[in-house]
Structure formats: C-alpha cells, structure tokens
Specification:
The complex is a heterodimer of chains A (155) and B (743). Chain A has helices spanning 17-29, 64-74, 91-95, 97-100, 112-132, 138-154, and strands spanning 9-13, 33-37, 52-55, 58-59, 62-63, 83-87, 104-106. With 155 residues, chain A is of the alpha/beta class. Chain A has a domain at 9-111: Response regulator (Rossmann fold). In chain A, α1 (17-29) crosses α5 and α5 crosses α6. Chain B is an alpha+beta fold. In chain B, β15 (631-640) and β16 (643-650) form a beta hairpin. The chains are: A alpha/beta (155), B alpha+beta (743). At the A-B interface, β7, α5 and α6 of A face α9 and α10 of B.
Chain lengths: 155, 743
C-alpha cells in the first residue's frame, strides 16, 4: 500500500519580511509546507507539527537566544522532536551553533539555491537516522517510506 | 647479566637465529663423523693394544717354553752358573727384564736369578701368565726327560716398549681417522651442498623472484631425484602461475577497457568513506587524478566543512550503507545524494550519482559510485525549457499586446520593416564607403527600431539590432571626413547582419500571427472609433459634416494605444537597472494623426528609456535628494489650438547640463538644445538602455520627418521633459505654452 507523501513542515522565524517572502517562495517551490513569521511569540502552537525550525539569530531588538529557549521549553524532546537550526551567513556564529543551543546550522543566508540544497540534505539526514534506528520516530518513518517509494518510482 | 650474551647473539643474528640447511647439515655431519671417528679410534686402539700385548705375551711364552728346555740340564746337574748364563742370555736376547729359575718342587728362593726381581720370590706352583701392571710374568714348569717336574722358570717381560709403540700407533690411528673423517665430512658436505643445498637455494631465489612478480625465472630440473622432482614441480607451478597471471591480466585489461570506456566514472568507497581500489578513467577525469584513499566527501563537496549539511548527510548515508543488511539496500540507496557539483576545466560540472553495493559474505563490503557528467544534458534541458518558457512568454506578451490593440504591434512591424529596408537601401547606395551622415541615419534607424522591438517583446530582433548598432558604432568611430571605408568582408558581414535582423523581425511576426486569435489577418487590421463610423454613416445618410475631418479622425490612433506597451515595459527596464518607476499616462483618448502615429510609439519608447536611464535615478540617489524611492514618468497628450502636443516627463530632474555642454563643446545655457546633437550624452558609457547619445537626435529627426519637433525642458531636481509639438508651432512664438504640459 502506498503511503501518501506527507510534506515536511518548516517554521521560519526572521525579522525581515522580504527575506521571509523569499524563503517561503523558495521552500514552497521545493514542496515543503512552510510557516514564515516575523513574530517571536505565539509560535509554540506550530511545534507539534513542525519538523524543522529555522531561526534568524540576529534580529534587531530581539534576543534570538530567548526565542530559541522559549520554543525549546515547550517542544518535546527526543528523536521525535523538531530540530532547531540557526539560519545565518555569519561564519563565526555558524561554528558556535551548538554553544548557542541549536541543533545545527544552515549557512549562506540569502543564497536560496543553497538553502534548498541544504534542507534537502537535512531531511535526508533525518530519514537516514530513522533508517538506522527505525523505532526512533513514527512520523518520520511514515514519511521515509513514502520517500523511499517515491525514489523507487523515480528510478 | 645471564641473558646478555643471548641478547647479543639475538641482536647479531636477529630475533630468531636462523641456520641454513647447509650449516645444519655441516654440523650434523661433523657430529656424526666425530662420533664415528671416536668410536673407530677406540676400537682400533683397543685392537692394536691387544694385538701388541698378545704378540708380546705369545713371544714370551714361546721363549719361556724354549728356556724351560734349556734350563733342564743345569737344573738336573744343579749348576747355578750355567743356569744364570742361560737366564742372562734369555734376558739379553729376548728383552726380558728379569728371569728366575727354581730347583725342585719345594717353595724357596730361586736357584738362579737375573734382572729385576719379582714381587714374589716364592716359586710359582702353577704355570701360566700373570700381568702385574706393565710387567708380564710367564711361568713354566721345568721337567726332566721323563716328564717329572724338577723346577720352574718365571720370565718377567716389560710392556713399556709395547706401550710406547702402542701410544705411537694410537696417535697414528687417531690422526688417520681424523683425516679420513674430515675428508669424508668434506666430501659429504660438498656432495650435500651440490646436490641439496644449492638446488634448494636456487629454488628459494626463484620463489622470491616469483613473489616479487618476476615469472621468468626457472630452475634446472635435470636430476631424477627428489630435488629434480621438486624443481620440476616448481617450474610447473610457476608456469601455472604465469598462465593464471596472464589470464587474470587479460581479464583485468578487459575489465579496465570496460571501465575506461564507460561513460560513468566508477570508483569504490570503503566503510570509512574513502576511495579504495581501482578507479576508471572517467572517474579521474571527473574528480582528479589523486583518488587513492581520497575522502568521498572531498570529491563530492570540495571546500565544504563538517558543518555543511550535505557533508553530514553523506557521512550518515555511508554509515547506513555499510551497517544495514544488503537486502535493505534499496531503502538506503533512495536516500543517497543524487547530484554533486564539482569544479573542472574552469567551470562547474553537474555530476549525476548512482551507488551500488558490493556484497561479500552477506555484508556490504564496498560501495561503488557511478558518476556521470550530466552538465551538457542539463544545459540542453535548461535550454529547451528556457526556449519553451521564452516562446510561452512571447506568446503571452503578444496576446497582451493584442488584447490592448493589435495595431500597436502591427504598426511597429510596418515601421520596423520600413526602417530596416531604409538601412539596407542606405548601405547598398553607399557601396564600400559609408559617409558619416549615412552612418548616423542608419544608426538612428536601427536604434529606434531596437527600442521599439524591446518594448514590443521582439527580443530576438532587439538583440540582432543591438549587434547591428555596435557595428554602426564602430563604423562611426572609424569614419573620417569622407566616411568609413569598408572592405569586402565587412560589407558582406553588414549585409548578413541586416538579413539576420530582417529574419528575426519576420520570426517575431510569425509569433504575432500565432498569438493572434484572427491569425494572419491581424496584420491587415486597424481599430476605428465606433462614433467615427457612426458619423461616417450619418454623413453618408444625411450629407452632414466634413468628410476630410471624419477621415482624419478615422485614421487617427488613440494616444493610449500607441504608448501603452512602453508604459507597461518601463518598470521592467527600471528594475533591470536597480531602479523603481511608475508610469502615468494622460490623454489616452486623444487621437494621434496618422503620420505621427506611425513614429510616435518609437519616439515614446526612446524617451521613456532615456528617462529611465538618465532621469529617475536609483532609490539611493533619490533618497539623498529627498525624493520617494520610486520615480514617476508621465506620458502626456494635450490638445492645443495648434494641434496635439505630447510629452514624456520624469520627476528626477537629473539633467546634467555641465556634462552635455562639455561633451558638445557649448554653453551650459544651451544644454537643452545641445542634448539633441548626435553623439552627445550625459553618460560616460553606453548600456542596454541609453548612453550612445543618439536617442534625442533620433527623436528630433523622426519628429521633423512628420512635421513635428522635439524640445527639452528641465528644472534641476524637479523634472526633465521632452515635448513633441507641431513643427510650425515650434517655429512660431511658442504656440504651445510650456505650462500646457506641466502637472
């Protein structure tokens, strides 16, 4: 039985409307389900269905760390939890992502081709982690099956 | 300290002292021969000793028997003197050391005595031989003629001389035995070395050569013994190895040919993620020559570090590929990277990636990467897609134009045909030398048609005309007073460029026809006002009004129809230059006389492009001057008593009168007029939009051809406006007041 492809859902938090619009357009074109917001509060409601949270750490007047901490405090833990990645073009910050409390980094902010490529790699990575540890995430597993079957069909 | 000699020995001889077979045979042979020699010496010396002593004793016994006979008379006659003489003769002639003779059978002192005395001087009662140290005593009974015992004789013989002779003999035996043993040993060693050691050494050397890859070495296998059989077996084995090696080499070469002739680059990756084993020629062409033990991540994602998600995902995938059982390969392979981009030959190459497992003993031992350069295919696909997009865009553009009134495009087509035809005619008439005036006119015609082509989305034509414009620009730069002299190939090239431009125009016309709902009929259609048709009908019916007036109104084109395409295109031109503009059109309904309507679209396009290029400025420039980031261009048509007047105005007010005056060699106060001189521009460089200094000159020239003139008005930092007004009005006392065109 074929499993319907459930699109990955990404929450993007950035203070720039222009940047959000570009990111959203890019990710929608890649088939992702995107929630893009400039708000730093009220985003917790998205977390149960979101696979990845992309956060701009440098937001004028807003402490990126507090945004991250507030979202982390209400998110589930373990392999099923969504991942928090910092989206930055700052190489120094990228190298300190773990110290800042993020799970990873998507670099070259503003390069949307690179963004699409890196997010593909991210979701491949999650699927591979599930493949190696099948019991780790039911939701990801469902999506993985679909992904595998889709790849087979493509071949 | 006890281990020091051992350690020294081991250091000298290696961790495990090794003795060669020859040495071991030598040692064994020497030991055996030594044992044999010792045994032989012992045996021989014992035999010699016994032989010597027995001979001595036998001789002594015979002597004793003889003298027992000889002593009988003296004993019978009891003559001691004779007995001693006999004993003396005995001692002297037979080497005895002493002799005793007893008379009678009763024990007592000897009757006669010569030489050394025995230890026991009592008369022996039993004849025989007794050995005391190195002295042998031989006793004999002396009997009378009747056989009755009358006395006894004891002869003492010394074995010293025999012992001495024995020692000498023993030394000879020892020397001879040792010599023989040594000779035997040497002969044996020589034989063993020749028959065993040397052939084995040859075999060992040959085996080492084979191990080193030299299969040409053979050993002589002449003997019929075990060594010969071994040598023959060795030669057979090497022959088999050579045969197998040749077959393997042939298979290897075949596989290598297959690999190297595959379009895919092939390499294998181990569980560390490193390249291992053979790689194909295409793989080296794709990823570089130094592939052995290279990291796959460095090949696929060169220059990226461990934070890169592609690199992380690749590492996870390699781990999964080797960790999962082979039957789950399909799931794993579905998550493999599909493409990579690598820098090769000064450009980026798109590589398609496929992975295959190499399974051994039920596990994935290696992963084969099949990489294929799909750059060209990708480019072709992109070109096809781009072509399709371009065609669709053209169609959509044409449909938009047609929706707004096909006449504008049809008019452009007619004007463009006229313009290109005029250029071809000018070039033909000039022959091989183009006068400056011809070059200028041709350039202006091309320039005007190019601008309108761009506005009408005839992009291919615009590109062709841009190239043609460059050609005329070069001719203008080379031109002297008499003009520009062209050689044969330049004339041919120019004709070819004109042909290509004409072909591009016709191609655009075909697209137009394709996009038009009425097909080719669109080329023969015009739009008229219903009110004019009604008036014409009324005139025909009632004979009212002026027929010439109605005809003029029918022939006139609405201003909005003529400039609509330029108004639509201007924001895109501005965006390409990093600017923002909005276009306002006033007087859309005003009728444009047919003569002016034929050229006005091109003139408006030219003026709009000038406004975008020179007038509005970038958002940053405008912000510095306190203006909104987005500029405004107004296209205005007004009816005046002298006739319709048209203007294109921008709100930038960036007219650089100093630059114009400097380039034209005039006064600042004359800048507004100098701007119409050919080749004068306020910009130091030309681009797609403007800068060649031909736009305004072309506008004025085209306007005057249809009875209008162009005039430039400006107020610094407020506006720049170009008005097109009836020529007679311009020559008159400003029949069209400046305020008429103001906001």
């Amino acid at each position: 039985m074929m499993v319907a492809r459930k699109p990955w859902k990404i929450l993007v938090i950035d203070d720039s409307e222009v940047m959000l619009a570009r990111i959203k357009r890019t990710l929608l074109a890649e088939g992702y389900d995107v929630v893009a917001t400039t708000h730093v509060v009220g985003n917790a409601r998205y977390l149960p269905t979101v696979d990845l949270v992309l956060i701009d750490y440098h937001m004028p007047g807003i402490d990126g760390r507090s945004v991250l901490e507030s979202l982390r405090s209400v998110s589930t833990t373990g392999p099923r939890a969504c991942k928090f990645y910092v989206y930055t073009s700052d190489a120094a910050m990228a190298s300190r992502y773990a110290e800042l409390g993020f799970d990873g980094v998507v670099r070259d902010k503003g390069d949307f081709v690179q963004l699409a490529s890196q997010l593909k790699a991210f979701f491949r990575l999650r699927a591979l982690q599930t493949l190696r540890d099948p019991g780790s995430c039911d939701r990801v597993k469902v999506v993985d099956d679909a992904l595998v079957q889709e790849a087979r069909r493509a071949k | 300290m006890r281990g020091l000699p051992v350690r020294l020995w081991q250091r000298l001889m290696g961790a495990r002292p090794r003795l060669t077979l020859g040495a071991r045979l030598a040692v064994s042979t020497c030991a055996l021969l030594a044992l044999f020699a010792v045994g032989a010496v012992i045996q021989m010396t014992a035999t010699e000793r016994d032989r010597r002593f027995e001979a001595r004793i036998s001789a002594g016994q015979a002597t004793a028997d003889l003298y027992a006979e000889l002593l009988r008379p003296p004993l019978v006659f009891e003559d001691p003197k004779t007995a001693e003489d006999e004993l003396t003769a005995l001692v002297r002639t037979h080497g005895a050391i002493g002799a005793d003779a007893w008379l009678g059978t009763a024990p007592g002192r000897p009757f006669a005595h010569v030489g050394a005395s025995g230890a026991d001087e009592a008369m022996p009662t039993v004849p025989g031989v007794a050995t005391r140290g190195r002295v042998v005593e031989i006793t004999r009974t002396i009997v009378d003629p009747d056989g009755a015992p009358i006395g006894a004789l004891r002869l003492r013989l010394s074995l010293e001389a025999d012992e001495h002779a024995f020692v000498q003999a023993r030394e000879r035996i020892l020397a001879t035995t040792c010599g023989v043993a040594a000779a035997l040993g040497l002969a044996l060693l020589f034989s063993v070395r020749r028959m065993v050691v040397l052939p084995l050494a040859r075999l060992a050397r040959a085996a080492r050569s084979v191990a080193a890859g030299d299969f040409s070495v053979r050993v002589p296998a002449t003997g019929r013994d075990e060594i010969g059989a071994l040598s023959q077996a060795y030669n057979d084995m090497v022959g088999s190895l050579v045969d197998r090696d040749q077959r393997l080499a042939a298979v290897d070469a075949h596989l290598r040919d297959l690999l190297d002739n595959m379009r895919q680059g092939v390499l294998a990756v181990d569980r560390e993620g490193r390249v291992a084993g053979e790689t194909s020629r295409e793989a080296r062409a794709l990823f570089g020559d130094t592939l052995d033990r290279a990291w796959l991540r460095d090949l696929l994602y060169p220059g990226r570090d461990e934070l890169d998600l592609d690199v992380i995902a690749l590492g996870e995938w390699i781990a999964a590929a080797f960790e999962l059982p082979p039957e789950r390969w399909a799931e794993c392979e579905a998550l493999a990277p599909r493409t990579a981009t690598v820098a090769r030959g000064g450009g980026q190459r798109l590589i398609d990636l496929e992975f295959r497992p190499v399974v051994r003993d039920g596990v994935v031992a290696r992963v084969l990467l099949l990489a294929r350069d799909v750059t060209r295919e990708h480019e072709l696909e992109e070109q096809v897609r781009e072509h399709e997009r371009d065609h669709a865009r053209r169609l959509a553009s044409m449909r938009r134009l047609l929706a707004g009134g096909a006449q504008i495009v049809v008019s452009f087509v007619a004007a463009a045909r006229d313009g290109l035809g005029r250029v071809a005619e000018l070039v033909r008439a000039a022959g091989g030398t183009l006068p400056p005036a011809v070059i200028d006119e041709a350039f202006q015609l091309v320039h005007v048609v190019k601008g309108e082509a761009r506005a009408c989305d005839f992009d291919v034509l615009a590109e062709r005309l841009h190239a043609l414009e460059d050609v005329f620009d070069q001719f203008r730069a080379r031109a002297t007073g008499a003009g520009c002299v062209l050689n044969g190939s330049e004339v041919a090239d120019l004709a070819k460029e004109l042909e290509l431009a004409t072909a591009a125009l016709e191609q655009g016309v075909e697209t137009l026809v394709q996009a038009s709902p009425v097909g080719r009929a669109v080329l023969d259609q015009i739009t008229v006002q219903r009110s004019d048709l009604d008036a014409l009908g009324a005139y025909v019916a009632h004979g009212e009004g002026s027929l010439a007036e109605i005809q003029a109104r029918l022939a006139a084109r609405p201003f909005g129809e003529l400039v609509g395409h330029a108004a639509d295109a201007a924001p895109a031109w501005a965006a390409a230059s990093g600017k923002q503009v909005c276009v306002e059109v006033e007087g859309r309904e005003l009728g444009v006389p047919p003569a002016l309507a034929a050229v006005l679209p091109a003139l408006v396009v030219q003026l709009m492009r000038n406004a975008v290029a020179h007038g509005v400025g970038t958002p940053e420039e405008r912000a510095e001057r306190g203006k909104e980031p987005r500029g405004t261009i107004r296209i205005v048509a007004r009816a005046t008593p002298a006739g319709p007047v048209f203007a294109v105005e921008d709100d930038g007010g960036l007219f650089d009168e100093e630059a114009i005056a400097a380039r034209a060699g005039g006064q600042r106060s004359e800048a507004a007029e100098l701007a119409f001189a050919a080749g004068v521009s306020s910009r130091s460089h030309a681009d797609e939009l403007a800068g060649r200094g031909m736009g305004l000159a072309a506008v004025r020239r085209a306007s005057r051809r249809v009875g209008y003139d162009a005039r430039l008005e400006y107020e610094r930092d407020r506006f720049v406006r170009v008005c097109i007004a009836p020529w007679r009005a311009e020559r008159g006392a400003r029949a069209v007041p400046r305020q008429a065109m103001g906001a």
